[in-house]
Amino acid sequence: MPEWITGASIEVRRGASSGASPDVYSCATPQHEVLEAFRWMRSLLASGKAKPEDIAIAAASPADYDDYVSALSGEANIPVHFVQGIKAVNTPEGQTAAALADVLVNGVSQARVRRLLLRLDGAQSIAGLPRDWVRVLPADAPLSTVGRWKQAFSLVEPATWPDGVDRSNLVLNILQILEKGPAGAHEAGEELLPRLAMKLWRLALEDGPATALPVTLARLRIADGIEPASYPIWTSALSLAAAPRPFVRLLALNAGRWPRRISEDRLIPHHIIPIEDLDPLPVADADRRDFATIIGSSTQASISFSRRDVEGRLLGRSPLIGDFQETYLSYARIPEHAASEPDRLTARPTEFGTMPIARSALAAWREWHSPQINAHDGLVRPKHPRLKKVFLQPMSATSLRMLLRDPMRFVWRYALGWRQPEETEEPFSLDPMSFGVLVHETLQIAVNTLESTGGLGRAKLDVITQAVEDAVNAIAARWEAEQPVPPPKIWRNSLDLTRKVSATALTYRLDLLPNQRSWTEVPFGVPNGSDRSQLPWDPSLPVEIPGTGVIIQGQIDRLDLSGDNHQARVIDYKTGRLNRTMADVVVHGGTELQRCLYAFAVRTLLGSEVKVDAALLYPRAADADRALFPLADIPAALAMLASAIASARRNLENGLALPGVDADDGYNDYAFALPANPSYLARKRPNADKHLGDATKIWEAP
């Protein structure tokens, strides 16, 4: 009892201790402690020993266990009252306030603004803004500044907006408020947030500076709306000691957690001012008193501690446990009373094993460790409708490469429609694929400009350079408005490299064809045609590879055609580094298909009498004399490729969607769908290759 009570006009009433000896349990982790607490609570309720309002679960610092208790309460379907309140950010209003804080602190990116306005749907601050207004925005553009937002809106026609009404000014007015950042936090909250979210916002601003809003909002707590007089409670030891309950479960009886250590550094040495004077009610003493009060006033008490923390570190027992005999509880034990349906099934593996999902999982696990090929390795039903549908669609060089080198990934992408999530934030650098797209778009605009002013073949160096410069400037503005771009300095360096590579590509010394005309990004095999005019052919005409039944489509990087249509030259630009063995490459194991496919498409669309040359051009090659690599024998290459495609198609139609040579590629976006065991492919590939048969020959082709 504190000394200040002695002599005061306060009546102190003491009650006799219940004398109950608590049961002590050793649990694996904090999560296991909470699970065992709910099993204990379920057993009390099921047996009728206790009513819900007689039960309490407590810890000295309950915040560390809040998420576990909240999740298990929903899973077990046992409402539990949080005496200390629930996290405000777990409520819709808290999420709205958190979305605003995210925008103010981290910037007005498209993803953050869209999330905020979605949370504000129906609020007075965005009245008149339809829910589907975001369709006018470029999906991949980060729009990290208000300037980028204005640029994006400037490209949108008013008729594109829902109901044909331009609401860009309403959005921009909101962005002007958000752009002020933490300095405008008070104004943003008052102008944008609905009433309940605004209350949380004001409390967070009172609790700390605006720059710390994500932190202060995260620690705000509100009432959970559950009546404590009718339900079990989850509370702190301090609150439970003030209003004890007969059936209690105390968690986290670990060294340093109960009793807790002093939370502040001692700035003044003990010999100058004793710690007892600075802290007359130390937290450790309070924790000991609370423990004694709870145990002494309970009818039945249980206490538990964790052997390890969530990161696997060993933990010690609390000194409050003393000489009490502990019971060791295994995480995998079979409980007397399961806390929830998943807990019950986990404790009864025989019953769980009869469920379809369990049978499938067990079969997959066993078959992954077998060298034999089975249904969990890509064997599917022959003539499956999904696979049949895939081959009815035109295919690109990229899809054919995947078909030849990794049938399993081909099925995942083109038959099942799996796609890798795209980056929405601004990248740190431009990846090789994006750089290639940037160069190709530059070449397309530059060549179109040159062809309209006399032709590429007769253009002078300064004219080509200016056309490239204009093209880069136009594309840079469009990319900045529509998709993520690197930071300014890296972006400028990428544009400079684009100018250099594009100019080199267009000024490379190629023999001029008679009355030459040139095109870039020439489409073929496009079912819906193209909106481009003055193309050398109808882009909607089908192009079928002989003997395969496969229709191809694509865009030729550059096509030079003589005036009489008797000579054609196909150029495929490569913006990457030059392979030293490129001179010997034909199809390169099925990875280099463009030259062959594009040459075949030109001959199909313009007639078999046309003489077609196809080559790869590396504008970044150090030696200009070794930058162009023509395909020597186009018919032989096409025959090899057609045979491989036909074999690959037969395999898939026969149900062999197996992993191929590219399955363990470091750039495989679908590697997450493969078993995590690193030896899986090494174990399966030999038999998979046998099943694929002749389709694997292309992998060894030059």
User: How many distinct helices?
Assistant: 24
Reported for the largest beta sheet, the result is: 7 strands, parallel
Question: What is the strand content?
Answer: 5-15%
Give the distance, in angstroms, between the N- and C-terminal Cα atoms.
89 Å
Radius of gyration: 35 Å
In spatial order, strands of the major sheet run 3-6-2-7-8-1-9
Counting helices, strands and paired strands, the structural category is alpha/beta
Q: What is the share of helical residues? A: 40-55%
Mean pLDDT: 88
Count of beta strands: 16
Given as residue ranges, the uncertain stretches (5+ residues, pLDDT < 50) are none
Overall 3D shape:
elongated
Textual characterization of the structure:
With 702 residues, this protein is α/β, with parallel strands linked by helices. The protein has helices at 30-47, 66-76, 92-106, 110-119, 146-154, 168-178, 185-192, 195-207, 213-218, 237-242, 275-278, 283-297, 341-347, 349-353, 356-368, 385-390, 397-405, 407-415, 432-451, 461-482, 488-507, 594-606, 634-653, 680-692; strands at residues 23-27, 55-59, 81-82, 86-87, 221-222, 233-236, 247-250, 300-306, 326-328, 517-524, 543-545, 550-552, 554-561, 567-573, 611-617, 628-630. It has a 7-stranded parallel sheet with strand order 3-6-2-7-8-1-9. A 5-stranded mixed sheet has the order 10-13-14-15-16. Strand 13 and strand 14 form a beta hairpin. It starts with 22 loop residues before the first strand and ends in a 10-residue tail after the last helix.
